[in-house]
Design brief:
The chain is α+β, with helices and mostly antiparallel strands and 662 residues long. The protein is built from 16 helices and 38 strands.
């Protein structure tokens, strides 16, 4: 959607490719035409070079933009595009090959005099060699996939005992994501900041940098909040890092958009980490502070034109922060979530149809390809949308981003929306100086418990939203007599919390009481609310307003099966109706291992009859390009195995059973 937006501005027709899972995606509808390239698994479609080249020939396309991931940093793909007589909108295959492998790239940078993190990047990949090298480097160390990026195939290892499992899981994940299990080792730097420099180079020898982005706030080594400029990078440091990035790009005759990634230690020394030979997901913050369109520059470079500006013509204005809205359950360790988005609303209505590439008059931009009713599959990344705010100061951008996130409505699937706002509100982020790659571990291990518990007001409105669906009046304003007669009792639950809600009409309004369950106590006395002036806000009946104890409230709801999804006061909640019902869930217990998410079974480490010990790895699931290992919750004997490698497992499905041995 982002690339289509700029291509259309430049007068280019666009062709989208899609897998079977993305047949109904908005990018398919947005392009001038679209071509099917294979099944839902990436290897069948978005990693299938021949299928993509066939799509180009079939549609008559003369250039290919590789996007942000999949084959974007694949030298074989760039070479195949070139051999097919097409234009690859990116660097040459030789440049991708030089920098795409972290081990070889690091060696090149060392030869070019770039400061690099101490480590190991050599062909000998045996566990024995890697273990010996790790001892010499000294723990803690980082295990990294040589190919690709995005935090996949990366593990932090504190002791020698942890290393074998880390090597195995990193290799497996890297092989799945990038087609290569090659690894490198690096000394882990304490509390580093992750800083990257955006560069662009043309075929005429021109190369510029567009300043830095601070990408230090990460989970599972993947970025979730990025900003430009960095709060700690001085003009002098920016100049040194920018000059180093340009020298490195010129040393490999780089052409196109790219990013040099660095770590900065507590002494503000910078070290080369890797180069991304593609457009970054977080490029929007650079566009915000420079006023430039990086995709437009990519198209200009690919067309053989010189860079539109020289280094001294590039200005930086204000501050920008980006947050990545993902389909994840943050309370469960950022587990990816699949399902259907029952209702979606971006912060600015015009962005719903013009999704990507433009900042609104309020300085907010939302890049997404979402619509109400869209299914989120387990095959690809958990990223749903990028919300970007620009302000004259960092504080203004931060406030705008919080407001924009609190106006994003995504009902029907768990997201990290609330977690993002908690990060942005944290005093250490507000101050900015102590942000580092361990920010979440140091400061966000426990989001305030009150914020994880819905208010009684939210519960009252959730219960009322169930009743208003019975309204027998199609008018915008609905009188109480057309919604219910008598007293209704509704039981709702969220996590381990339960409430009984009573609703009854009286004199043109509704009385609501909310009582915590199971037993009332002195501290859990009922809360009382009076609701009146109910009005529908959308034709689809997903939104309504109602006055609650004298204050007007806007509610978004979606109801299906035994769940009511509610968006209220900047936060989404999913309540279960009648708490004793557990829809679609396998019975739980230490001996019953069920899938915590929908995904592909990568490995089953045990078979029927095996004796297992507590915390022993049992099953590896892969969902949204991340691997998740399930461990035994008790010691015992495997009674039954219900899955096999290569099959799909739905969330809640029973995978295997263990009989406890006392």
């Amino acid at each position: 959607m982002r690339i289509i937006h700029t291509a259309r501005k430049q007068g280019y027709r666009t062709v989208a490719i899609y897998s079977e899972a993305d047949r109904d995606s908005l990018h398919v509808q947005a392009a001038d035409t679209a071509v099917w390239v294979g099944g839902p698994f990436p290897q069948e479609s978005y990693l299938n070079i021949e299928a993509i080249l066939r799509a180009a020939r079939l549609s008559g396309a003369d250039a290919i933009h590789p996007g942000y991931g999949f084959l974007a940093e694949n030298a074989d793909f760039a070479n195949a595009v070139d051999a097919a007589g097409l234009v690859f909108i990116g660097p040459s295959g030789a440049a991708i090959e030089a920098m795409g492998n972290k081990g070889r790239a690091k060696q090149l940078m060392l030869e070019a005099g770039m400061p690099c993190i101490p480590g190991y990047q050599a062909p000998d990949q045996t566990d024995r060699t890697l273990t010996q090298v790790a001892e010499k480097i000294g723990y803690p160390i980082m295990v990294k996939a040589s190919a690709g990026g995005g935090g996949r195939g990366m593990r932090l290892v504190h002791t020698q005992e942890e290393l074998p499992a880390a090597l195995a899981s990193a290799r497996s994940e890297a092989q799945q994501a990038f087609g290569s299990g090659e690894l490198i080792l690096e000394k882990a730097i304490r509390r580093p900041r992750h800083i990257e420099i955006q560069i662009l180079a043309d075929a005429h020898g021109n190369c510029v940098h567009l300043g830095e982005r601070d990408c230090s706030i990460q989970r599972r080594h993947q970025k979730i909040i990025e900003e430009a400029p960095s709060p700690v990078v001085t003009p002098e440091l920016r100049e040194r890092m920018g000059a180093a990035a340009i020298r490195a790009a010129r040393s490999i005759q780089y052409i196109g958009a790219g990013t040099m990634e660095f770590l900065i230690d507590e002494q503000e020394q910078f070290y080369f980490m890797e180069m991304n030979t593609r457009l970054q997901v977080e490029h929007a913050v650079t566009e915000a502070i420079t006023g430039l369109d990086l995709v437009e520059w990519q198209l200009q470079i690919a067309a053989g034109n010189p860079l539109p500006r020289k280094q001294d013509e590039i200005d930086f204005q204000g501050h920008a922060i980006e947050a990545r809205l993902t389909a994840e359950d943050t309370a469960a360790g950022f587990l990816p979530q699949t399902g259907t988005i029952d209702y979606w609303r971006a912060p600015d209505n015009h962005q719903e149809t013009n999704a990507g590439g433009s900042f609104s008059s309020l300085g907010v931009r939302v890049d997404h390809a979402l619509c109400s009713g869209q299914h989120i599959s387990p095959y690809y990344d958990s990223l749903l949308a990028k919300v970007v705010a620009h302000g004259t100061t960092r504080e203004e951008a931060r406030r705008k981003l919080i407001l924009a996130l609190e106006r994003c409505v995504a009902l029907g699937i768990s997201t990290n929306q609330h977690f993002l706002t908690e990060c942005l509100k944290h005093p250490e982020f507000v101050e900015g100086r102590n942000v580092h790659t361990g920010f979440l571990q140091d400061y966000m291990n426990t989001v305030s418990q009150e914020s994880l518990k819905p208010s009684k007001r939210t519960i009252a409105l959730a219960a009322f939203s169930l009743l208003r669906q019975t309204a027998t009046c199609d008018a915008e304003r609905v009188p109480s007599s057309r919604i219910q007669q008598g007293v209704s009792v509704i039981e709702l639950s969220y996590d381990s919390q339960h409430w009984s809600v009573r609703v009854w009409p009286q004199d043109g309004s509704w009385n609501v009481t909310v009582q915590e369950m199971p037993e009332p106590t002195e501290n859990t006395s009922p809360s009382h609310f009076q609701l009146r002036d109910f009005r529908r806000q959308s034709k689809a009946d997903m939104a309504f307003t109602v006055e609650c104890n004298g204050m007007m409230e806007t509610i978004f709801t979606a109801h299906h099966d035994r769940n009511i999804h509610v968006f209220h006061d900047g936060q989404s909640w999913s309540f279960e109706i009648a708490s004793s019902h557990k829809s679609g869930q396998a019975p739980q217990g230490g001996g019953l291992i069920s899938a915590p998410l929908t995904g592909r079974v990568v490995d089953v480490a045990v078979k029927e009859g095996d004796v297992v010990s507590y915390n022993q790895p049992l099953v590896v699931l892969e969902s949204m390009k991340m691997e998740h290992t399930l461990h035994a919750e008790l010691s015992g004997r495997v009674l039954a195995v219900h899955v096999a490698p290569g099959t799909q497992a739905a969330k809640g499905a029973l995978l295997l059973q263990i009989e406890e041995q006392l």
